[in-house]
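Why show two proteins at once? Because comparison is the fastest way to build intuition. When a single record is shown, students tend to memorize it. When two are placed side by side, the eye starts asking what differs. So, the first record is below.
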Amino acid sequence: MAQLALEFLGTGGAFRTPRPGCQCALCQGAREHGIPWERTGPSLFVHGPDVLIDTPEESCLQVDRSRIRHIAAGFYSHWHPDHTAGRRMYETRNWDALRWPPQNTCTPIYLPPQVAADFETYLGLAENFRYLESRGLVKVHPFDGPLTLGGWQVTAFPLAESYVYAFLFQELDGHRRVLIAMDELLGWTPPPALAGVELAVLPAGVFEFHPLTGRRLIPADHPVLQTEATFRQTLAMVEQLRPQRLIFAHLEEPFGLTPPELERLAEDLGRQRGWDVTFAYDTLMVEL
């Protein structure tokens, strides 16, 4: 049986917790208590295949505090800055600054087709990675088919928003399957072939309504509701996906949900829908 464990390096979204200067109860709690209240940007490490998915601004901090010893490959789900702005982590981790000639570490970086195209367009991403390649720190590869890493087959597939990809990890010598979607589920209908995966990692979506009280959190005419999946829409996707275990991440600060509230919400979903649900926090380790 191939080893696999998920280490949640960062479980926030575009808005980390605490937000600079914010004095709300959630941000004050994060400053006082740290993890699990504090959340850095979205990133996940898959032990076994030793795959790092996405590098937010805090990627250097996340990788340094983690249990990561070896990175066999880096994947990117899409180009958004909260998933890519910490790409210098590969530079600071891999560069041999003292020996000459240097004995740098080189990490393979795998980009699904539209991600590779978007890197040429947005944020100077392709140019930055060409610089890292020129120093022997990374090697960028197109990723348009299954890869085999550490006893697992890894496949990337676009979601309804075609610029963003999810990743399916399938055990080569068994039947276990793990679905990882880092962000952007708007309009997605889970295909029947994914039903019953052992574990699904999904973004929670935006909380249009407070999930415990029903109080409206986002005005009905707010444009974000046209561009982001809501939590209620995400729950409908879970009903179709029917995973054996479910972990929500990409939890944004503006909605103000505290760890005790998220624990209560997970209990409610378990009691009402029969789901095994966890709301992730930074440093959470989940073994299969």
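Second record. Ask yourself what differs from the first in the token line.
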Amino acid sequence: MCPPTQLYFLDVGLSNMQDGHFQGRILTSDGDGRGLRTVLGDLHAVPDGIAITDSHIFYTLMGNPKKNDGSIYRVNLDGSNNQVIIKEGSTFTPKQLQVVASHGKLYWCDREGMRVFRANVDGSAIEVLVTTGTTDADRLNERNWCVGIAVDPVRRLLYWTQKGPSKGSAGRLFRAGLDIPAGEPSHSRSDIKLLLDGLPEPIDLDLDSSQNVLYLSDRGDPPFGNTISKIILSPEGVVRKEILIRKLHEAIGLTLDVEKQTMYFADLNGSVYKSNMDGSDEVTLFSEIGDLTGMTCVSAS
């Protein structure tokens, strides 16, 4: 019997401001929506990305998008021992976060920082893997903004989204190797491949490595935005993109439970959903419980 699934997801607290601060939270429930509780509250700097190992939750704080003050924290599964591991100023606006526990590495996208990062799970050895812009003028171009990320440690590949303007149908999906080719800088890697262009507003990613299929949330305009899609991949690029779920309300969070062939997704409107990985049997687990961003899941022991 498969162990039960535990969900972890973020409420940025935009609708719950106290004393001039957003009241962000890390929330958890089981995979059927029971046992909802707060793991950690009072997150004032706008949490966005979340990842988990057997012993820790990692999460990003975007901070003020006009300042270089983003950070990444690590906390025990019970909410204790909350500590910063990537200090303010080391990353500008950290977005989706992935952890590869077997390699001891964190990967994340930096929106206004226009970069893709890697570091050890203790926050050491920070590396910039991709740079899409370096100047204030570059920062004004939302086509340079890196948001969603997925990692394939088996094929040693990295995927990320660059969202483009809000509802602008100028978003893109890219792929590169996990390591920069020898002698090349992060801003002009020869192995970067554009997989898709003209996406409404692509946000988060997750990957079924066993099938070489990406899953993508998109918060752009309908009918192609506010959707969850799957993207079948090949060594050459994209074989096919197929929309699985429509009519979400600012779709952001996305996570897969591949063993159970289940996916979970969330929108900024405050709903959490569950479906089969082909998009069938969609159910709503929660409605209007906050302003939801990133999410992840794990098989509970």
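One difference worth noting in the second protein: The mean pLDDT is 96.
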